[in-house]
Amino acid sequence: NRLKNYKTNSPLVESKDNANNWPYYRKDSLRNNASEESIEKNLKLSWNKKIGKSKLTQASVFNGLVYVGSKQGSQVYAYNENNGELVWSFYADGSILSTPSIDGNYCLVGTGSGYVHCLNAKTGEQVWDLRAAPVQKYIGDRDKLDSSWPVQGSILIKNKIAYFSV
């Protein structure tokens, strides 16, 4: 029932394909994991950033921002693609287990606490959240409390519908 309401009220639009964007886990909604971009022979490091002590998710990139989640730190970060400066961060209610999904103006992340958060991709402000877990029931997991029904894997957005599993 909650998913039906989410679907009909969703402001999401599918991201336009752009060679510089990698907005989802494995690049696009088809999980192609490939790019036709040519790569220079002599690559140079643009920037390097140490982010806490937690393991991080794979990064997603959209419109000049690099998005990454902290698995133990329960945070989502957005960095400037060119210089590595922090643009915004968001504290979630649980572990960020998978790559943030970027769709137009929105950043969607699932958490270990069983919630899906929709954030403004440019500012990090929360637009809405949805408890995907059937009930709030927590268990000890990796030195913290998480849901018995965590949101597993990155959120897939296709035809204005967000797909995820718990």
Task: Please characterize this protein's 3D structure.
With 166 residues, the chain is mainly beta. It has one helix at 2-9; strands at residues 60-62, 65-70, 75-80, 86-91, 101-103, 106-110, 115-120, 126-131, 138-141, 144-147, 152-158, 161-165. The two termini are 15 Å apart. Residues 1-17 have low confidence and may be disordered.
List the helices and strands and how they pair.
Elements (H helix, E strand, L loop, with lengths): L1 H8 L50 E3 L2 E6 L4 E6 L5 E6 L9 E3 L2 E5 L4 E6 L5 E6 L6 E4 L2 E4 L4 E7 L2 E5 L1
Antiparallel strand pairs: 1-2, 2-3, 3-4, 5-6, 6-7, 7-8, 9-10, 11-12
Labels describing this entry:
37% strand; four-stranded antiparallel sheet; mainly beta; 1 helix; disordered N terminus; globular
Strand content: 35-45%
Low-confidence spans: 1-17
How many angstroms separate the termini?
Answer: 15 Å
- Helix and strand content put the structural class at mainly beta
Largest sheet: 4 strands, antiparallel
Q: Tally the helices: what do you get? A: 1
In short:
This protein is mainly beta.
